[in-house]
Amino acid sequence: MESLVIGAMASLGAGLATVIGALPILLPINLTQRIQGIMLGFGGGVMLAATSFSLIVPGTEAAVAQGQSQASAALIIVAGVLLGGVFLQLAHRFMPHEHFFKGKENVTHNNLKRIWLFIAAITIHNFPEGLAVGVNFGNNNIADGIPVALGIGLQNIPEGLVVALSLVAEKYSAGYALWITLLTGLVEPIGGLIGAGVVSIANFILPWAMAFAAGAMLFVISDEIIPESHRKGLEKEGTIGVMLGFVVMMFLDITLG
Questions:
Q1: I want to staple 42 with a disulfide (CB 3.0 to 4.6 A). Which of 58, 172, 223, 241 is the partner?
Q2: What region does 70 belong to: left with phi over 0, alpha with psi -120 to 50, or beta?
Q3: What's the mean pLDDT when you consider all of the chain?
Q4: What is the pTM of this model?
């Protein structure tokens, strides 16, 4: 039960960083497209490092500790990653949503408000992040969970700002944009609670859960973060952001994990 509470609270803290990042929209500032590209890339880099160092590597170690051979552990991780990717693909396929820069996807009713399509897109994006935090805390290993929660929270700050700026650009008020970023951030503790709960109930699922979360995050990175950070010819800015985010998360994981 304790791991459930810790996992949910940690993912809640990471999710609330989204609205913290959105607060600068209340100030008279103007972030250029280049800076937004770097910020999006930074979030992708953090997620990529978390996928590698905080999910795949410890997931493999957990499988071996449970008595699996190296080959069996590798197969478990491969299967879990693919399942996570399939889950996100199905969510994208059947859940109408709209990307901030790529446009609508799976929208059959034109009268569906754009704001709800945006919320759906961010929900798909944020759920794997909360899942990753919860899975790490669900094993009662706070040392492994802290860098993941910090890293996800860190990448949620620029993400929240970009989301809020996009909403303001769609003629929504700053207050409404903050409210929406708060709602989307609250998706993460749901994922965190599910991840921590599954692992707490059946510890043997830990390698599978870690690999599943890693696959879901990899899907988001490739399908969402990188394409949107590369929009309008901003590939270099997005790449700089990815590398910065990767090394920051790597440092956190090595130092605190």
A1: 241
A2: alpha
A3: 81
A4: 0.79
